[in-house]
Give the backbone structure.
Amino acid sequence: MSLVLLERPSPHVAVVRFNRPDVRNALNTEVRRLLHGYFAQLADDPEVRCVVLTGSEQAFAAGADIQEQAGRDVVGAIEAYTTRAVMDFPKPVIAAVNGFALGGGCEFAMQCDIIIANDKAKFGQPEIKLGLIPGAGGTQRLPRTVGKYNAMYLLLTGAFINANDAHRMGLVSEVVPGNCEPRALEIAAQIATLAPLAAQQIKEVVNAGLDTSLDAGLKLERRGYQLMFGTADMREGVKAFSEKRAATFAGK
């Protein structure tokens, strides 16, 4: 069976699922290769408006496949470990985190736009316990997400935090009891009914603005606003509002 599954549970929504439950969805080279291929496929699919990235009920992904990593030289390890498949994906991605999201699993979750966690979820960057540091964005995304001092505590101790603490720090959008996948799918379905071009523009502008000054970010926002102003979706949204009905967005 494939180590990553692609599912289509409802119109305009796709699910990409890590599928190595026997090793808590540890991330090896084949997982990353499949993940890259699926996200490239979904980026080009006009029917897909939102993606949910998830694992099993026991683990989202418990980090890199350490046995595989140990057999590589440093260049091979870095190349195998790093992927921009989720980060560069133009459409909204929701992480549905049940159980462990550690190391590379936490890093993949942080590449997503929304993180929904169940109340048993655990987050952490334990690489220091292996004599390593995070290699897929943990030292950069975690401080930007939870602040320097929360991030340094997690990175320097390798500690795990529960879902409620992750929510308090700003790492998690919402905590739900039990399996969180249904809630993630509910949010994805809601996003999929809204204007897809606007959703993509929001994602692009927010992410670009995080790495620039406020003034530069505001310029990006104005440009995005102008781009959306000429779309058929904008005209449909305004017309539907005036007619007191739900808009039907075509992504044009």
User: Anything to note?
Assistant: The radius of gyration is 19 Å.
